[in-house]
């Protein structure tokens, strides 16, 4: 303690500290917060806010974790191309050699005398990793920009009363069908026939049945009696099983016919998936991005195994016998021959629709 002349520290009394004012309890705010949380819990329990909440959480959830089910779904169907792997390895080795030589030639040593003494294989590996990472980031950014542009220009609302995730699931169904068709083409050199028929005209098997091994349904394909027609008693059991990519996520649609066969809510383009034998990529002379491959249907549902589950899109959209949607938005999801999924309005120009339906009509397809 600091001392002062003529002052006895023992007689000095400390000054009383002023009382610290207590913070007033915000009872009103606490009461309002509890009341709000109570109403929120009540609405959630009644299901009044569940669709809205799921819709808000859907986009960030898919951005963060959507790649996990995508990898689980597509990796088993990916085939490794040895030539492509060897080419990539050779190019990567050439890049590493060039970076290493340039690094040792252009970087001065630690003591300033002699070139390349400060550059080693670790620096080469880091540089190559950076180049590959930048390339992958560029590809990812391009894909993300493409998808964002598609979402912005799509006539389908991002969140709608149709139900969170249903539109995305419907798009995913068509993407799975497109991937299976392309894998079939890679194995057989052409798309499957829309349907095969016997000498008497009786239907044998449809195009979806031949995709089973490419839809993670190899076990189901083994139970199919290929020597019997699709509707023979021996084939009733496998064809009564629903095929997930062909089942629409929207409620209210029939799931089986009167005989118990599982129905398809998507159909192929009869001009590409033709009878007896399907077309190849070379036959689609109008361009893969300008030719329809499959789409949603709104009526006349057939079993997914039916050999006649292919339609002529040129009939019109939301018209019996053509592609269509059971939703009120007037927008139909379709699969293009290149495997992409897009939307079409039911008011599309019939001439444009016919041009998209033909694989080799030679028409000029304007914007639609």
From TrEMBL:
Q: Which InterPro entries does its entry note?
A: DUF1559
Asked whether the keyword Endoplasmic reticulum is assigned, the reply is: no
Write the record's keywords in alphabetical order, separated by commas: Membrane, Transmembrane, Transmembrane helix
Region ranges (Disordered): 1-21
Q: What residue ranges are annotated as transmembrane?
A: 31-54, 83-103, 124-145
List, for all copies, the residue spans of the domain called DUF1559: 165-298
Q: What is this protein called?
A: DUF1559 domain-containing protein
Query: Do the record's keywords include Transmembrane?
Result: yes
**Source organism, top-level taxon:** Bacteria
Recorded source organism is: Alienimonas californiensis
């Amino acid at each position: 303690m600091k001392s002062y002349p003529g002052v006895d520290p023992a007689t000095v009394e400390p000054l009383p500290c002023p009382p610290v004012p207590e913070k007033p309890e915000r009872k009103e705010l606490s009461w309002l917060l509890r009341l709000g949380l109570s109403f929120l819990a009540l609405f959630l329990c009644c299901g009044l806010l569940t669709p809205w909440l799921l819709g808000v959480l859907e986009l960030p959830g898919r951005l963060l974790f959507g790649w996990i089910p995508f990898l689980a779904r597509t990796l088993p169907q990916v085939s490794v191309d040895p030539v492509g792997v060897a080419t990539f390895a050779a190019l990567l080795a050439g890049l590493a050699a060039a970076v290493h030589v340039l690094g040792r030639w252009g970087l001065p040593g630690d003591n300033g005398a002699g070139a390349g003494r400060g550059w080693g294989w670790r620096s080469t590996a880091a540089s190559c990793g950076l180049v590959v990472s930048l390339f992958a980031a560029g590809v990812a950014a391009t894909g993300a920009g493409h998808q964002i542009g598609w979402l912005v220009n799509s006539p389908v609302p991002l969140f709608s009363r149709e139900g969170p995730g249903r539109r995305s699931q419907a798009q995913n169904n068509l993407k799975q069908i497109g991937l299976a068709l392309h894998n079939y083409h890679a194995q057989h050199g052409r798309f499957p026939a829309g349907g095969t028929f016997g000498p008497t005209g009786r239907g044998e098997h449809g195009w979806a049945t031949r995709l089973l091994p490419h839809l993670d349904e190899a076990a189901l394909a083994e139970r199919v009696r290929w020597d019997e027609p699709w509707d023979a008693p021996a084939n009733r059991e496998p064809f009564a099983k629903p095929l997930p990519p062909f089942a629409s996520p929207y409620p209210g649609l029939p799931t089986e016919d009167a005989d118990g066969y599982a129905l398809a809510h998507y159909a192929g383009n009869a001009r590409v998936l033709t009878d007896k034998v399907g077309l190849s990529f070379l036959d689609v002379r109008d361009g893969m991005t300008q030719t329809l491959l499959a789409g949603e249907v709104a009526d006349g549902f057939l079993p997914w195994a039916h050999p006649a589950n292919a339609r002529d899109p040129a009939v019109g959209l939301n018209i019996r016998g053509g592609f269509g949607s059971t939703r009120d938005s007037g927008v139909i999801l379709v699969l293009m021959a290149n495997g992409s999924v897009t939307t079409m309005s039911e008011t599309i120009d019939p001439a444009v629709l016919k041009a998209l339906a033909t694989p080799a009509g030679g028409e000029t397809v304007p914007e639609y």
